[in-house]
Design brief:
The protein has 2 domains: 155 residues, 2-Layer Sandwich (Ribosomal Protein S5, domain 2); 106 residues, Alpha-Beta Plaits. 25% of the residues lie in helices and 28% in strands. It is built from 8 helices and 12 strands. The chain has a 4-stranded mixed sheet, covered by helices on one side. The chain has a 4-stranded antiparallel sheet with strand order 2-3-7-8, with helices on one face. A 4-stranded antiparallel sheet has the order 10-11-9-12, covered by helices on one side. A hairpin with a 6-residue loop joins strand 10 and strand 11. Helix 7 packs across helix 8. It is globular.
């Protein structure tokens, strides 16, 4: 039994207020993209515990702390099913603002539910997923949404980027959370993202923003340079995703720019 967890990007990200609990309220649009990991589970009657095998991009976490295994243990608190041999092939870069770990965790909840006919609804799985991370519930539904709160309150939006060409670049830069929030001044946007996405993509530049860029670009100018390069080569819209460090560009037509980005992680294709 196998599935293919996909990444997401943020179309705009506004930090609108600071909460009493120390977290920040935000507004963003989560949009799924076709960069994928592979996740397989093999039930084996002779196992006395779950086994985790990983390959691909090395994740800086012990097996017991990997979100996939946390999701598995969380499902065991609610349901009975055999011990599993779990295989994760990691292709989505981590520390990139793409939600790869969250995707793996939520797809694990879905895969176990479907494989063993446990009967959990999407709403029940989402309630479990939020215990693993604020953006995990998005991957239960895995469709474009306007997200608010800390990223766990969803409202469906009518947007499709199908047919546009997409380039994503992830430099070898890790951004600590404290750096991402440095110098952030929460501000309610003058125009809501739900209104901006109704406009042609050619009007998004300068209107749809990622507030994290204000503090991250001065600290990590290489990330800003990637965004500038995408625009210089014809991007209709370009932005950092989440708190970084990946940057994406949306193009009207197919382009090939890998030679411009050296050894950075690079992905291109139609959405």
């Amino acid at each position: 039994m196998i599935c293919f967890p996909n990444a997401k990007i943020n179309l705009g990200l506004n930090i609108v207020s600071k909460r009493a609990d120390g977290y920040h309220n935000l507004e963003t649009i989560f949009y799924p993209i076709p960069i994928k990991d592979a996740l397989e589970i093999l039930p084996k009657e002779d196992l006395t515990e779950d086994i985790f095998v990983e390959a691909g991009i090395k994740v800086d976490a012990s097996p017991e702390n990997n979100l996939v295994m946390k999701a598995l243990r969380l499902m065991r608190t609610k349901y009975n099913f055999p011990y599993l041999e779990v295989h994760l092939l990691k292709k989505i870069p981590f520390g990139a603002g793409l939600g790869g770990g969250s995707a793996d965790a939520s797809f694990m909840l879905r895969l176990i539910n479907d494989s063993f006919d446990l009967g959990a609804t999407k709403e029940e799985l989402a309630a479990l997923a939020v215990q693993l991370g604020a953006d995990c519930p998005f991957f239960i539904y895995n469709q474009p949404v306007f997200a608010s709160g800390i990223g766990e309150v969803f409202k469906e939006v009518n947007i499709s980027l199908k047919g546009y060409y997409f380039i994503l670049v992830k430099p070898d830069i890790h951004i600590p959370t404290k750096d991402a929030f440095a110098q952030i001044v929460p501000t309610k946007p003058t125009v809501s993202l739900t209104e901006i996405i109704k406009m042609p993509i050619t009007e998004w530049k300068g209107l749809m923003v990622n507030d994290f860029e204000k503090s991250i670009f001065p600290q990590y100018p290489a990330i800003a340079t990637i965004k500038e390069t995408l625009y210089e080569n014809g991007a209709l819209y370009a932005s950092m995703s989440g708190s970084g460090s990946s940057v994406f560009g949306i193009f009207k037509e197919e382009v090939h720019l890998q030679q411009l980005f050296g050894n950075h992680f690079y992905w291109e294709g139609f959405l």
